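Hey, quick one: can you model this chain's 3D structure?
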Amino acid sequence: MDETARGFLAQAIRDAFTSSGIDHNEEYIDCLISKVDNDVLQAHLASQDGNTEESPLRTTGLALQTPPASPHRERGSYRILNAPKRNYGNLAGAEPRKRRKRPISKLAENLGDKFPDRIADEPIEVGCKNISQQPDYDHVKGTHHLDIPVDSSLSYQADSAYTVKAMSSILFECARVNFAIALYGHRTSGAPTTTKPDKIRKYVDEISEYDYEKAIDVIRRDNALATGKGLQNRYNETIFWKIILKVAALIDHTKLPSAKGPADGFTMAEKAATKKFMEDAGYGLGAENQRQCRIFWKNLFQMREAGIDKVLYYRTKEFDSYCKGYPKTSEISLVDEIMKWETQHRPHIEQLETRALRLAKGDLMRLSDLENPQVEERLKVHESSWNNAKNEWAFASEEESFRKKGLQTFSPEVLCAPSNCQLVSESEGDKSTFTFLLPKDGSSLFACSIVPVREGDFLGIFAGKIRFSENWSTTHGIRGPIDNLWLDYSQVTGMLNQMRVSEPGGRSNVRLQWEVAHDDIGTDSCTSWRVSVKATKPIMPFEPLIRVAAQQEQFVLHSSSENAKRGFLELCEAD
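Sure thing. Here's the predicted structure for all 575 residues.
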């Protein structure tokens, strides 16, 4: 297994342990990977010998064991003294076999437990375990680190999957939090807060007696306050190290034992202060948990002091996992790397905060996007011509004609449920909340998503008005699934109308899909169409969205920078 594959597998194991709440350390992860590597090698050797039944990959219930000791120099190995040597020449491209490190003796293990400060510092695990939330499990015993070099920095390049996952989780959290808070608003409330069971039950009984409007208001308030409290608790961790330093300054250094082992970046006073803080605050006092919390809280405090704010405010477990695995040998420090995130994403986070608050208040047209200074100076469109909410009929007479045709039965392919942009997560198919207009140069814009997009994800509405007529526009027309049904975007535009357009038959990563809102099915007025923009392939953050032009005339229209400035509208005066 090459170093790149080992790096990706190591991070995947970290993420799996983190999401499952399993305590772990790097030695255990390396041992797991080495076991897999050895099984793959043995399976390959078995297949070469024609003995696939003995392949370790076909054996169930294998336990992870400590590698056996190396053979004695004079006596040789007890395992395969009489076995013929295998020929590895047929393993083209395989790495040379690596010697296994002699297992650590029990005495060495006991010394390590007795003097935990001898353990070399590693990046912090996902958060620090509070004893009130989760017991402080000891790390797995009986496993030993196999000394196989792994360049973990390969997994942490600027645009690696781990960077994208960690930063995207922060953007999802930002949207989720602000949608929850927007239902009640940014307020400081005197709502009762208690830990007494009797008062909690009494409070719930009181809510049950309210009328509907008052009960809903209280529930929204409590949900918003609970969300804010969660933010507060996580953000508090950014100043823990500052408090610990105050305790360390009061400790008499002469009464502390001398430091043992290599320098780890912490004084004995700081270690003693950390232990006292964790004990008083209710955190587990295991040696490994103390070591990890020291590193983690110090990193968070240094980030805060460096001016990192938004990233820390919406911190997630994926972000913590990224920090945990960040290589200490990297040329860029962890603080500098996160500062790059803050600089690049702070404007998007602020715009996302505004968008969530405005959407919750009914700004379905997303007029707030036109207020963005970078958009305002590059796009001259009046608010009345901006609609990202729905596709309305251009003329009531055409809608009536369509209804009289009796075209009320639709195939399942064109049916859709109303979009709910407040359901924000990586697994949700609605990514419209994260579709943005960003400056491409000094005079133009491009549409993109700021989070990863999967094939089939909904990115938003393609603005325009529904028409049902034989006359249609070759420049501003998008044909529908029924004859004479088409979309006209000559008078109305929106965010996704500004996306890049390729020639007919050219490359693209999105498609326009005609759909009927599910709420209208079975009614007499089943004429509510929606022209959705769907991803046709996975799309990375900030990758321009591209659709194929319906015809050559449309491609020519979108090739003009002057047309782009007015949102590709027809007969629309610039502001």
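One thing worth noting: The chain has a mean pLDDT of 78.
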